[in-house]
Amino acid sequence: MRYISEFRDPALAAALARAIRQDARPDRTYHFMEFCGGHTHAIFRYGVQDLMPPNVHFVHGPGCPVCVLPVRRLDDAIELAEWHDVILCTYGDMMRVPGTGRRSLIRAKADGADIRMVYSTQDALQIARDNPDRQVVFFAIGFETTTPPTAVAIKQAQAEGLRNFTVFCNHVLTPAAIGHILSSPDFAPGGPARIDGFLGPSHVSAVIGTQPYEAAARAYRKPVVIAGFEPLDVMQSVLMLIAQVNADRAEVENQYTRVVTRFGNRKAQALVAEVLELRDSFEWRGLGAVPDSALRIRDSFADFDAEQRFMVTEKQSREVKSCECPAVLRGVRKPTECKLFGATCTPDNPMGACMVSSEGACAAYYSYGRQRTPQDAA
Amino acid sequence: MCLAIPAKVLSVEPDDMALVSVENVRKRISTALLEDVMPGDYVLVHVGYALHQLSEEEAAHTLSLMAEAGILQDELAEIRGDR
Amino acid sequence: MSTVDMTHGGGGRAMAGLIRDLFQRHLSNPALDRGDDAALVTVPGQRLVMSTDGHVIAPLFFPGGDIGALSVHGTVNDLAMMGARPLYLTAGFILEEGFPLADLERIVWSMANAAREADVQVISGDTKVVERGKGDGVFITTTGIGVVAGGVDLSAHNVQPGQSVLVSGTMGDHGVAVLSKRENLTFETEILSDSAALHGLVADMLSAVPSLTMLRDPTRGGLAATLNEIATTAGVGIMLDEAQIPVAPDVAAACELLGLDPLNTANEGKLIAICPSQDAATLLDAMLLHPLGQNAAIIGTVTKDPAQLVQMKTSFGGTRIVDWLAGEQLPRIC
Question: pTM of the predicted model, to two decimals?
Answer without folding.
Answer: 0.88
